Amino acid sequence: MQSEKKNPSNQYCCSTLNAVPQNNALLQKSKIPFGLVFAPYKNIGPDEPEVPVVSPEVIVRCKICRAYINPFVTFVDQGTRWKCNICHVVNDLPAFYSWDSKTRQAVDRNTIPELNSSVIEFVATQEYTRGPPQPVVIMFVMDVSFQSIQSGMVATAARTILSTLDSIPNYDNRTKIGFITYDSTLHFYNLNSNLNEPQMLVVSDLEDIFIPAPDDLLVNLSESRSVIESFLNKLGNMHKSTQNVNSALPAALTAANKIIGQIGGKIAIFQSNIPNCGKNALKKREDPSLYNTSKESTLLQPADNWYKEFALDCSRKQICIDTFIFSGQYTDIATLSTLPRFTGGSIYFYPGFDASRAEDANKFSSELSRFLSKKIGLEAVLRIRSTRGVSVKACYGNFFLMASDLVQLPNVNPDNCYALEASIDKDLTSEPYICFQGAILHTSNNGERRIRVFTNIIPVTNNLTEVFANADPRAIAAFTAKKAVERTITDKLEDARNLIINTCIDIMGAYKQAFTSSGQASQLLIIENLALLPVLTQALLKNIAFRRGNIPSDIRSFALSVLYGSPIENALSYIYSKLYAIHILDANTGLPIPNTSQVYMPPRINLSMQRMTQDGIYLLDNSQHIIIWLSRGSNPELVNALFQKPYEAIASGKTTLPTPNNDYATRINNIIEFIRKDRLISYNNSPYVYIVKEDDNTRGWFISHMVEDKLDSELSYPQFLSHLREQVILYKLRDFPSIHHKYSNNYQRRY
Amino acid sequence: MGGEALLFLFAAILSALLLFIMVYFIIMFSDLECDYINPIDLCSKLNQFVLPNYIAHTVLTVLFLLTGKWLSFLFNLPLVIYNVKRYMDNKHMYDATEIFRTLSYDKKESFIKLIFFFISFFLCKLIFY
Ligand SMILES: [Zn+2]
């Protein structure tokens, strides 16, 4: 009966283990990390079903552990009571699940959404609400120093906000917005609806910030609409002649926090410069001599604790911080990224932004516009429950952990994904399966308090082969990536690299030790379903977040944020890019799939230059960018069809492809458009198209995605495999911790 | 002789005080585990005791050194070194965003310190009488 009830789809939730060992000893024997990667509030694509929203008379919960009724509970006593699958207590079942008093008929439980759908949203009853629900509140905090004006960032932002005003969620006309701009002084804007024109109020004392006209700085979007429009029309030109290169971000943040602290909401930062002025200013601490040393990780850790403390204060006041960064120079993303990290926000990075390039302006504009119009959950808490005997050991994600299983999220950002690490504390012999349940109590955009609940069950096994055979290498990679990011920030980059490689070696060694006789040691053995594990491990080690080499710390810090926050699909293509050959297309490649919003994609190819031909055109999607690789020998007809010019005339770099009226270009443009649309919905990212020509100096960047090839000091995939093979043979010795350590050092030297 | 007795009396009182602080730490940690206190409040409450605790213990150890109480000095020295190391690594303060990751270590550390101050208190009392 229960087999037809399905777990949430992989994008909502996936476990590293799809068969859970019966006890901790068996888990330790398998060496597989027990983690759950989940995104309960993920964006829903056009072809996906919406999450059912239900408002039963009573929200049925277990009387002991407070778990929500779900599709996997069992009914006992002729179906009049239900047994909780978290704590096993038997609870009474309200009559409305058995008898419909309106139609005077027995209820068919197969039609009740909360008993059938493993992701569900309950409309909360009175008892879940405390005071009036929070309205949507957005405080724009915008750097207007010389760089911001010069790059056209302020003008583009103003134009985009103006054109998006109608799409900002504004249920019941309750939405409030406000603006603060800053250079070495703070500028507040009185947007009172009685004014004809906005008033600018300048505050230059950054020590003890005085908020002028506190009631008119955050205004009702509908009431003050005309003043807001007039302000946004002017903002682009307002600071046009500025020569000020200072940027007092901390002071502006303090002011924004004072203004919206009472109600909570969102602070959106637009920063073009390192915050170099006032209290808690940051210094240019980038130091290339620290690259590749054990001190490199200090560059990846926040420089000033104030930013973290400020973020925690915001989290407490239900304020989420999102950060848009535009600088071409060092901006200390390591420090600035702590603001979104602890408040449920996101970070957007536009290195070297220049709005006079159409590609830059379009990318920023479409991401900002989606950022403002997308659905978000407000003032949320996420509680995770798990079957007795399984407990949550650690949580990873952009939030603040209030208790070991309670997460505070000022905003539930659908672009974010979280992970938890579980441990088995007790023998699970009597359990046929274990269960994880996550519940997010939040305020939906229509002002309703709602509870989004997802329930995921995993069968229990006492058989080690089954544990291995049901392990998911993709979930292991995504989970290990998040854990390694955490490790980089709290410890050292090298510790993170060791964590990644040792996770793989341990699993393979454990498998080999458990299942092979010593005679056949030469062949690298890993169970078929884990075949992807070595390649994903290697790709992770070569990701810009973790690989060796002279990588500017802003770039590394941003990559760490991407791996830490992005949904599983995006994280995986960020780790192992998607590469397609687009010079030979099948009959329907690039054509729309009927009745869907998708197109037929070309087959993926492995990330190795050896898989590519001399005359090929390739498209690479690394989740952040779309790169088109043009070989020197590319078919001139195809090149001409796509670019409307010959190979020699094509410039490398960001490009907007022409849309000529020919079959080939239409199909390629369909593919690109599909990737872009999909990315914008799933992750609020609108990737650029970059052209990389084979004989151009940007080729190194493309080649750095070819993780199966040798890159600088990093091994090629065959070399990596033989290294793993050696390590796995030696694995038996590694039961002794000291020897384990020695081999990992040995590995460091060689690798 | 009176001066020495006074020193050990002082040491006993200080040890008792530090002992109570550690008891307080351990109670607070278990409150955190039971969800009675949130991490931010916990850390701000505990952090105000961290440096006074270090300083008191270091002063005591230096006093033993200056008065030539070598055994007592050597007994306290490892903890001073440990504290200095924590301070140099900037790991002496409790961080609300990391407290759940470091909790088991923090608990163990406080417990060992508790036992240490307990022994220290009784040794001082013994010598005092
Ligand atoms: Zn229960």
TrEMBL record, chain A:
Keyword Cytoplasm in record: yes
GO biological process, one term: intracellular protein transport
InterPro entries for this protein: ADF-H/Gelsolin-like_dom_sf (IPR029006), Beta-sandwich_Sec23_24 (IPR012990), Gelsolin-like_dom (IPR007123), Gelsolin-like_dom_sf (IPR036180), Sec23/24_helical_dom (IPR006900), Sec23/24_helical_dom_sf (IPR036175), Sec23/24_trunk_dom (IPR006896), SEC23_SEC24_subfamily (IPR050550)
Keywords from the UniProt entry: Cytoplasm, Endoplasmic reticulum, ER-Golgi transport, Golgi apparatus, Membrane, Protein transport, Transport
Cellular component GO terms, alphabetical: COPII vesicle coat; endoplasmic reticulum exit site; endoplasmic reticulum membrane; Golgi membrane
Gene Ontology molecular functions: SNARE binding; zinc ion binding
Gene3D superfamilies named in the record: beta-sandwich domain of Sec23/24, Sec23/Sec24 helical domain, Severin, von Willebrand factor, type A domain, Zn-finger domain of Sec23/24
Main location per the UniProt record: cytoplasm
Domain (Gelsolin-like): residue spans on this chain: 600-638
Domain Sec23/Sec24 trunk: 133-371
Sec23/Sec24 beta-sandwich domain ranges (all copies): 377-461
Sec23/Sec24 helical domain segment(s): 472-572
Compartments, as annotated in UniProt: Cytoplasm; Endoplasmic reticulum membrane; Golgi apparatus membrane
Keyword Protein transport: yes
Superkingdom of this protein's organism: Eukaryota
Domain Zinc finger Sec23/Sec24-type: 59-97
Entry similarity comment: Belongs to the SEC23/SEC24 family. SEC24 subfamily.
Protein name: Uncharacterized protein
Organism: Piromyces finnis
Automatic annotation (TrEMBL), chain B:
UniProt GO cellular component terms: membrane
Annotated family: Belongs to the cornichon family.
Membrane topology, as annotated: Multi-pass membrane protein
Location in the cell: Membrane
Source organism (scientific name): Piromyces finnis
Biological process (GO), any one: vesicle-mediated transport
Listed transmembrane segments: 7-29, 54-84, 111-128
Superkingdom, natural source: Eukaryota
Name of the protein: Cornichon
Main location: membrane
Keywords on record: Membrane, Transmembrane, Transmembrane helix
Pfam families linked to this entry: Cornichon
InterPro entries xrefs: Cornichon, Cornichon_conserved
PROSITE patterns: CORNICHON
